[in-house]
Amino acid sequence: MKYECGLSLKELEKRTHKDYLLTKKMLDVDSIEFKNLKEGDKIALSYLIKAARIIEKINMELDSHHNLAFRDFLEAEIKKGNKKAKLTKILFDAQKGIFALDCESNMVNLAKGLEKRLGRGFYPDDLEKEEFHQILIKMIKENKIDEVKKILNQRSVVERKDNELIAIDYVDKFSKDFEEVAKYLLKASCISTNNDFNEYLRLQAQAFTKADSMLDAYADKKWATLQDTPLEFTITRENYSDEMTETVLENDELNQLLKENNIDVISKDYLGARVGIVNKEGTDYILKVKDFLPLMAKNMPLADKYEQVISDKDEISQTMVDVDLIEVAGDVGAFRAGITLAENLPNNDKLSLTIGGGRRNVYHRQIRFVTSEDAKKKIQERLDNILDKTLHKFYDDKMDHPFTIGHENGHSLGPKEGCEALGKYKSIIEENKADMVSLSMLDVLTQAGLYTQEEKEKIIVTYATDNMLKSKPTLSQAHRVRSVMQNYYFIKHGAMEISPDGFLFIHINEMVSTAKKMLEEIVKVQLSGDFKKGEKYVLDNFIWTKEMEVVSEKLKKISKRLNGKTEQKLADKLFKEKI
Hints:
It is built from 25 helices and 13 strands. By secondary structure, it is an alpha+beta fold. A hairpin with a 5-residue loop joins strand 2 (99-101) and strand 3 (107-109). Helix 9 (175-189) runs antiparallel to helix 10 (195-207) and helix 18 packs antiparallel against helix 22 (508-528). The longest helix has 25 residues, at 39-63.
């Protein structure tokens, strides 16, 4: 196929300008964190960076059938001196692919004539939703149940075979690449200095050499126990971006057949890789909350109606680390409207949680830091333009971190099962739940001594201020849709208000109680396992008001930023090293 750059030179020059493209800097080549490592760990990092970049290549193929070929086209054109290709490649590397939404919810399409497909690279490029549903209905009626289960599984890539579809486990589909990843992980495991970490690397390497979900489960189970290791290496597997699989729940006939035949519907996993150095001081701060998790679990609404990962009866199977990042590759490194501050993994659909495995929270230091003077000035300008002046003293950008800690732990609380049936709304509802756990537990945690009254008030005001968006998101943006839902809910219940001229006032004393109400509603929807109830709940609260639009227009004038990229100088150096 012949490719062509999709954006004009003028648009490319704008979008790659530093005012429009934020740069998040990972550890630099002269970082003290790297210098302080033992020699074996330094060498191991070189192997892990090489493994991470192969994972990124695999994820690009999962994201779009055209990504790798378009990348090759750009690189060839750059050699010819094509300026548009050079600037397009900057955006391609930043968003890790051809297609992405920017932070104003505009679709960025870097290739002329292509369109983003619901099935991304997981499904045939010419497969439409309606045909997909009809093929599955036919296959189920012909009793091809096992094959349908594989098609609707998070690990498979789907291809056409005659008039049907077949599923190939991604380890088989990309076997040569995964064998290379395994080779590098095994080399790292022979030289890094921590035995537990090395055991995990060997287990993960084994999982990449055979298409067996149980091998992944063993690796995940071991990874979730890692607490006192110098290095961080994670294979991230999350399914927020697959828009095709969950559409089967929208077809009443197909949905009924799936229920009758006990076929689970699980969206496809995107793959990412995180490489870093564990920061002990930051980790010690995060670990303070661990003792309070049983208390949070006990205070969850309707806690007697379901089983959750955390309880006050068993030992807490959850580790937590703060990490100085060297490399974020693939899904975890894709800057698409935003980039993740932290992750709580494995997700509920993963097998490791059924064999006694726990979870692990990893927090991203370089992503959350606000360091430049220009960025601090922008924060103050934002406050001056959208936040009631009486509340400025309560805003503290450092309070995003404890709120994020509450959010990530919130993923471990609430119903463990039933959420997959909510289909394309499950991620929106789950992210909404995690935010409301963080907010609704503030009184409990303040009374228990984790936060001071001043910290609680700052967390509330900082959360609410930062929840204001530059544009109305699309339903595919789970993290942003939940922000709109929350803003609408808090305004409707009198905990927040936005003046006609776009100034936010927060009734601090009403926020926690309102969050508790919203959290209970969320849990009820999750417990229902009912797609239509989930849909109604989201659409009833996903209301973009005139006042929100006024705020968004003011935010656009303050910040030109449309997207961002990562700068990984140490990772680039380690990748090039011959070892």
